[in-house]
Amino acid sequence: MIFKKGIFQHFNLKTKLLLTYIIITIIPTALLGYISYSQYVDSIEQQVGVYVPRLLNQANNNLEKQIDRYYDEMGQLYNNTVVMNLLRKADYQNVSNMKQDKYQVDNYLSSTFMEGGREHVIGAFIVSKERLFEYSRVPYQSGFSTKEKIGLYGQSYNLQSEEQIFFPHETVIQFRKNKPYILLVKQIIDYENRKNLGTLYVAIDIKFMEQTLSTVDEQEDASMWMFDKDGYIIYHSMSSLIGTRDLETENYPIENGSFKSSSFLYSSANSLNNRWTFMHVIPVSHLTVKSDFVRNLTIISFLVIVVISIISSILMAWSVAKPIQQLVKEMKKVEKGNFNVHLTDSSNSEVGVLSKAFTKMLKEIKDLINEKYNIGLKQKEAELYALQSQINPHFMYNTLENIAFMVEEGEQESVVEMVTNLGRMLRYSLGNKEQMVPLKMELRHVEDYLMIQKARFEDTLRYSVIVNSASLEKFTPKFILQPLIENIFLHAFIPGQILQITLKVIKEKNNIKIVIEDNGKGIESNKLELIRNRLNTEHLIHKEDSFGLSNVNRRLILHFGSTYFLRIESEKGKGTTVTVIIPITNKGSIHENE
Amino acid sequence: MNKSRCLLIISVVAIIFVLVSCSNASQYVVLYEAEKVKEEQSLKELEVKKKFRVAFIPKVGGISYFESVYEGVVEAASELEIEVLYEAPFQADAKLQSQIVENMIEKDVDAIAVSVVDHSSLTKVLAKAREQGIIVVTWDSDSGQSVRDLFVDMVDAEKLGRHLMDQLAQQTNEVGEFAIMTGSFSAKNHNDWVKWIQVQWKQYYPNMKLVEVVSTNDDKERAYNVAINLLENYPNLNGIISNSSVGPPAGIQAVKNKNKVGQVAVVGLSTPNLMREHLLDGSTQVISLWSPKKLGYLTIILTNSLLENKTIEDYAFIPGVGVIRFQEEEQRVIMGESIDFTKENVNQYDF
Questions:
Q1: Is residue A295 part of a domain?
Q2: Is the pTM of the predicted complex or chain greater than 0.90?
Q3: How much is the pLDDT for B43?
């Protein structure tokens, strides 16, 4: 079976299912059908096998009773004192006396056995003391008795019991036309004198059995016969076989009961008293004629079941295997990178649930990919804008004009200082390979910027930078602060009023808080609301007024998550406060763009 | 490829089926067998069969009645292959018979069949025999019922007694004096018959007179003397009934010797052999008896039945005997009817 299992494992699911269905439906059905049919036939045979021997036994008993009645009649001889006297007489007498005796006994035999309803008696004989008394309906011939065979002449045959039956082959008596008969023999015993007076023989035509046996022989196909221990057929339902031998008798396994060969059912019953076996044979096919309908029905229904089960198992196998195959096909597509897969199975079956789960997973993967892709895109975009916004061309122009003016004025020292500042700023901008920089570098950049603006605006600008030195080495995203300061110059100036800018760096427990205050125009409350909303909701960065704010805001959120948004407080006419919060991190552990 | 493998598996299964269904295809298959047990039992019985030893004891030896009985015994014993130990008392004496029974018990026989001389005196020894597991059968004359297993009676005592009385009355024209010569006053069968003779006499024959009942003691000479005495003591005597086999011949002989043939009728129980001469010469008309051979034969047959634990049934047909009666309360078998022997038929019987 290992070989089977090995093969079985290599079948695909559909074949396995198909095989399994066939095995669990067709084989049991076939077995069931086969067993029930054969059991049915067996039980019929069993019933007949029990029933027929009983019938045969009854027939045997009836025959024995009939024979006993004949024996009873033979026993009446004892009551006939005349005949008994004659039989007791000494054997030798004169001729006339002997003839007289013979006349009397012959008359007795004819009147007792030949009259009335005893039509089956074909002959009656008494052999006594070398005398033969006889009466016979049918002419007969008889030889002398021998040790093996009984006859009407010669020495008396040694009977095994007082009454005994002989069959024709055990006698030397033959009636005309070989009429079949049985010979009832009774010893005439003088009970009083304890002597054997002679023997009474009555030959009975075998036809006497026919009436009794006709009660058994109802079926046309059946045949019946009766044989003795030598297989000699005493009686046969085909009368031509009477007197022949049944050569099979030695092979019959039992004498009382039933047995069967391949096509016949034999039943037999033994008559111990009369030394015969009564055999009844019927073709098995005859018994099962009625059951053939059942057999055909079984076969037809078996075929129907086979067809139905094959169809249904194909359907079943298909309905299970098909969605799985579909799923596998779709999965292969996904494997090749096509995420636009559409799974139709939305049923609640296992495969349907699997399909749904797979679809959901695909969707999540797709979303994840999209998200990551978009984040990367936005960051790049933001960085691009950041780059673009590093050095405003207006600022460059103004600064250069300022320098030119200072050169004209001969303010050598200031020029040098300004050019230095500008140079440092440009260098900071160019070295933008790193996303995160120490805070001190960012602060230096802002201070350079403020110093250049101070040189331009002279007394109308005041600024101060307050830093906790412990924070200087902490990291911050590049170009966070400059856009915010630049924003102040763009929007906060009130002509004729000194602009005060304060930049404070405060170290908190986990964060660094950078506060940028000005005392400029401030923002109207409804506009402030609008700006805050825009910072919260907009994902894309538009190059508008609040570009600097939103750019910084986006980058903070991208870097540190949504809680690190830009906080803006303002009051119209009093100024604005922008707060940036950065988590204190070591450079390495910060989420970085790759 | 899959298909061919399916086919392979299916065909393998099919072949297995075919093989299984063909494997028990011997020539004949027995479906049902009846009465097997019966045959086996009869076989066992044959194995168990052993040779029984039966003691057979008559009342007395040397008289032809019991000798005939013994012929029947021998016939049955040879048929059944039974060993018979036959021993007879030289006279009908209870002590002698009791001694013989004792001897037989010591010989460890399987059964004792005895014709009891004295109804009561054998009780003790027969009880002893039964205690030792010996089957006790009485025949001809019974003991008490408690000390034997079976009594084989020849005829019904009432029928026989009444019949003997009728026979005598017929001969004497139902008038005159008569005497009864009984075998003994101790044997139960003799007493029963005497009783029924008297019942019949009192019932039907008022003109007849019973003068005396005397005992012959089953002894020929004593019987003759008793008969002579009767003839001398009662000169008007018309008839004698004798119920033991030695009685009638002795009676007839006495009548002949006293020249009283035709004046004194003698009836009773005796054997044809003893009476043939007297019947043929017309000195007596009729004598009754059963076949003592048959009695002996039947006794052995029934003793064997008891030894083999077979039951005896009323109206049973015994081969070689005929139909017997059986009275279960008394455990008594009656063999049949008595036979009347006359001049015409006496030659047919040889006992």
A1: no
A2: no
A3: 56
